[in-house]
């Protein structure tokens, strides 16, 4: 842009570039750019400093974040809600709950800016992660008393916190009230509640919620299915897991590393699947042949000869591999 001498970067351009560097964790370059901005005669604004704070916290550089936070007034800038929200959230994420809480109180005492709904959402999430769900429930009422309307983020944080702390009944009750509060549950909230039912083995309720999600135009995503499948695997319900994996595959989702990890006691299977993954196979008929061949062989009723099918071109996805794995392990049991 500068070489063409047709137009020159303005403060907005530099601010965008600074944010990109911070998002990518390139903090040394970001600080150098900040100095360059000042050398060019621009005054970095509060947005620039907020990007730097985010970047430091993402890298775990809490000390540098504190120094930058303290430096802001010396630059003639006023710390606004965004700065306080970033600092409080960063401290909570770094397991510095006490320091984050003190900063929240300082924000109120300074009366230079006041907590907004995002501030309270961060605080509520922090309380839940710290195991203080009773305080979080009280805070929900305070949020309403202060004239804010709790949103899907507010309820999502609270429902997640209640489930994490073993208060599943209370979480489900709150979930069932969302419609009356004018809040439409999103896929994240549904996934949390589905995970709660999975833990106690209520898979009929899980199916009901999956149908409800589809009806409300909020279909399950990859994370939803992975939660269900992992839970079924832990409960040794391979057959039920297989049906969800087939459904997941039909929707075009893939498993995550925890879901598709290989159970113990199947070194022979793992060897064949690694061999298979490196080949190129062409049609779905290969899957059927290999699937049948493997099951018959593992049951002792035939001889497996997978290499005879290796001359074609396609790669089995992670869900197909898991389906074969379950059949192999079940037949061998």
Task: Itemize the secondary structure elements and their pairings.
Elements: H1 11-23, H2 27-39, H3 46-58, H4 62-71, H5 81-93, H6 97-110, H7 117-129, H8 133-145, H9 152-164, H10 168-177, H11 187-199, H12 203-215, H13 222-234, H14 238-250, H15 267-277, H16 284-298, H17 318-332
Helix pairs in contact: 1-2, 1-3, 2-3, 3-4, 3-5, 4-5, 5-6, 5-7, 7-8, 7-9, 8-9, 9-10, 9-11, 11-12, 11-13, 13-14, 14-17, 16-17
Largest sheet: none
> Regions with pLDDT < 50 over 5+ consecutive residues?
262-286, 300-312
By DSSP (H or I, 4+ residues per run), the number of helices equals: 17
- CATH-defined fold name of one domain: Serine Threonine Protein Phosphatase 5, Tetratricopeptide repeat
Indicate the overall shape: globular
Overall average pLDDT: 82
Main CATH class of one domain: Mainly Alpha
Assigned CATH architecture of one domain: Alpha Horseshoe
The assigned structural class equals mainly alpha
DSSP, total strands: 0
Fraction in beta strands: under 5%
Q: Give the end-to-end Cα distance, rounded to a whole number of Å.
A: 67 Å
- Secondary-structure element pattern, one letter each: HHHHHHHHHHHHHHHHH
Estimated radius of gyration:
26 Å
Helicity level, as a percent range? 55-70%
CATH superfamily of one domain: Tetratricopeptide repeat domain
